[in-house]
Amino acid sequence: MDGVLPARSGSSDTTEDDMAADDGEHGESAGARDARGRPSWVTAVVIAVLAAVVAVLGTLALTRSGGEEPGASPSRSPGAPTEPATDPGGPVPDGAVPDWVALAERVGPSVVAIDVRRANGAGEGSGVIVNAEGRIVTNHHVVAGAVELVVTLWDGRLYPATMVGTDAATDLAVIVIDDPPEDLRSAELGDSDEVRVGQAVAAIGNPLGLSNTMTTGVVSALDRPVTTVEQARLPGQAAVQVTTNAIQVDAAINPGNSGGPLFDSGGRVIGINSSIATMPSGAGGPSGSIGLGFAIPSNLVTLITEQLAADGVAEHAYLGVALTDAVVADDGARRAGAQVVTVEPGSPAADAGLQPGAVITAIDGRPVSGADSLVGFVRQYASGSEATLTVADDAGLSEVTVTLATREDVLP
């Protein structure tokens, strides 16, 4: 996973005709690779890579440091938390310093390490418990292809777990502890729409196999378009492209943090850590954290994981257009946007009257910086939702209302 701020390949357009499966074709960026050391794809804004586990036998997960056996973790410290993780308290006032010690004691027990056995290897990652019945939210790329799952709690207890549902298109998954203990602690999912740049955050997870690791920092950007490619795990499977308008943070995130929670200063989960950026390896850059980490916003997490918990699969809204990056004039200034290349007949875009050549500059008032940005925004909507697009064409700026739908033939 190499590179920062590369140019988008000019020969490739983004296709938004399949929100459920892929959402587009993206140009390759030379030197891009993910945390497992394999080539990946990037957006025009930033290179992001799956902060996944590096695989045993050449597959996914990161090899545990110090020769630890899966599940063994001398860094786990038993003891009772001072407060339930489900009672996070209020946010820290502006200018105040968060009490990270109290937060770690309160919400740390809701974070788990996940060991994954696959037919062709093994891996590890992180997850967060979201209810007393043992439901755990994590990344798809952490648990995809698992034949056995073992969850390690904060105090070192190990429990087998079962896959409930996984969604490659959003890189989210739900698993459940088979026989959860009565003292299981859960975390609260917050409202990512309330997140602001500059607010304090903490990531807790299992980086490099070092469980119960907490790092802190701030939100450094919002709605950062991040595109990763999740490679196929089994023969016959296709690679899946994941585009997310992510929460960007400077808290250290490393391989193994994938699937773990990003907490606000009040102890609410505002995102699921999933990807990082690194310097190009050809320039001698590091392969771990350089202070650019990305988390899937909690509102998208809630939308998808509730469907996974109920049905094992998730629906995705789609617009039905092929897109490319563009710049248009706007009141004497220039503005970036997503230009419509083609419109699929019978799609929500066609029903709304969108035409090729039109440039979408905003959705529900949120600026669209390019093709990936629009794809990321659309993915945050539930099927059947209405959205207002700000569109620039030969007639000037206008607003178009579109009802997003689900493409039935490409549901997971």
Write the layout of secondary structure elements.
Layout: E1 14-16, E2 49-50, H1 100-107, E3 111-118, E4 121-129, E5 135-138, H2 140-143, E6 146-152, E7 158-167, E8 172-177, E9 188-189, E10 200-205, E11 213-230, E12 240-249, E13 261-264, E14 268-276, E15 293-297, H3 298-311, E16 317-318, E17 321-330, E18 333-343, H4 348-352, E19 359-363, E20 366-367, H5 371-379, E21 386-393, E22 396-403, E23 405-406
Parallel strand pairs: 9-14
Antiparallel strand pairs: 1-17, 2-14, 3-4, 3-6, 4-5, 5-8, 6-7, 7-8, 10-11, 10-13, 11-12, 12-15, 13-14, 14-15, 16-23, 17-18, 18-19, 19-20, 19-21, 21-22
Largest sheet: 7 strands, antiparallel
Element order, helices and strands? EEHEEEHEEEEEEEEEEHEEEHEEHEEE
In angstroms, what is the radius of gyration?
A: 21 Å
Terminus-to-terminus distance: 27 Å
Helix count? 5
Question: What proportion of the residues is helical, as a percent range?
Answer: under 10%
Report the sheet-strand fraction.
35-45%
Structural class: mainly beta
Q: Mean pLDDT, rounded to whole units?
A: 78
The overall strand count is 23
Low-confidence stretches: 1-89
The coarse silhouette is globular
